[in-house]
Amino acid sequence: MTTAITPRTTRKLPAVYRGRLMGMAHDVRYPPDTRLFDEGGRADHFWIIESGTVSLDMHVPGRRAAVIDTVGPGELLGWSWLYLPYRWQFGARTVGPIRAHEFDADAVRRMCETDAEMGRSIALWVGEAVARRLKAARTRLLDLYAPYGSGARG
Predict the structure, then answer these.
(1) 32: cis peptide before it, omega within 30°?
(2) Could you give the C-alpha distances from 113 to 78, 82, 116, 122, 128, in angstroms and in order?
(3) What phi-psi label fits residue 136: left (phi over 0), alpha (psi between -120 and 50 degrees) or beta?
(4) CB burial readout 108-141, b (16+ within 10 A) else e
(5) Total-model pTM
(6) Tens-digit pLDDT profile for residues 24-70
């Protein structure tokens, strides 16, 4: 697998930062049904998915974990690594085989600390993923547990 820039995911980053970020990537593969991380665990890596799908789940007291979103090719998996206390807000499991670019969170944070403009760009990029995930989680949880659902369906 090559470490090609994933335009859909990193298009919001200026080219120089895309290149620097992707230069830190390690290509990885995971088999189906692999637990990548658990809610509350230490967030020390993140990924850009090349192929396959990962389901995101959330602990719901008194019930089994609710799948709240999926992440597929070209998407960022993991945002908790950027924000204190660096603990996963969701859990993640591979649905099928996965190919991805994996990043060491500490190394990327250090790079962002030494280049404030890169840090700002990365924070905005990751922040967009946070907003999408939280909206998806809200909608899914309303669909699962609210009396009349989220109202998002037609």
Answers:
(1) no
(2) 19, 11, 6, 11, 20
(3) alpha
(4) beebbeeeeebbebbeebbeebbeebeeebebbe
(5) 0.82
(6) 999 999 999 999 999 999 999 999 999 999 999 988 788 888 888 89
